[in-house]
Write the structure tokens for this entry.
Amino acid sequence: MLSTRSPVLAKTAYRAIGGAKSAAFHLPAGRISLVLCQCSSSSSNIQTRSFSFTSRAPLQSSQSLQVSPTKPRRRETKQSWPHPVYTEKQMMDIEIAHREAKSFSDKVAINAVRLLRSTFDFATGYKHDPKVASGEKRAGDATQFAMTEKKWMIRFIFLESIAGVPGFVAGVLRHLKSIRTLKRDNGWIETLLEEGYNERMHLLTFLKMHQPGLFMRLMIIGAQGVFYNAFFLSYLLSPRTCHRFVGYLEEEAVITYTRAIADIDAGKLPGFENMAAPNIAIQYWKMNPDAKIRDLLLYIRADEAKHREVNHTLANLDADMDPNPFMTEYEDPTKPHPSKGIDHIKSTGWSRDEALSK
């Protein structure tokens, strides 16, 4: 029931609610009252959005994941970067790995990641037993920390909202340098932009399952503003350090998703066990129609492992002279080389000699 003395406001309110089936106007004592009756065939079409500071929005049920509101101006578009096909074995073979920091640049990068990681953990309320992901302890035996389905979603959304920044910042800066210096880029731009696009697809997928509250939205805006400008200035100073930084950041992402998968396998997240993956994920990753959340996390973890490999490799190259090995066609296709897929993934990155070999 919306009540107002202004017929203009009443008309505007009516237009703003596009799903109204009927409206009745009454004019008692100069007051215009607008009664709107919303008819719905199924309550599952209603998506709950929370604007609370504690992010009380519930997880979407498996039945409502595939439901999206009708928008007349929305159009289906083709993917600019079709995702490579991963096999189940390739995804299961993904492991936690760490590249030892050797140079001063590496040490700057890893310390920056450690600072960022601790900040993210505090902001998202993330706690987990570190021995679970390393395999020293089973997830079912871990009792020190408890991550619920909702806490994992908050963690995923916040992580992916930041992870989509570096690829596009680096890609834009290299694009501007290319047109400024009137020189080719040697294929780096495409891979960097595709990385940012892939991270955004991760975020859009998780948003189909959970809508963060106002406080988290404000945190994302602030974090993006700070991180974008910091990474922008840092990339101008040292692209090598920035790529190493992203490589270490992706190492942490692989750990995060490995822990989440371990929690599902241990039965600690019953809400995820039978929840179907959203349609957006099935179409993007070319998943089976009956794919579950665990399958989705396997794909995303494989993506993060690929970004880990790409950025550690790019950090080993000369950013001004060397071609992008992930866009290169090699003379001997049977020999392991860097590629867009995860057929011959190298967790700590390819050395310069390996990447530039024929």
User: Anything to note?
Assistant: The beta strands are 2-4, 22-26, 32-37. The chain has 13 helices and three strands. The longest strand covers residues 32-37. The radius of gyration is 24 Å.
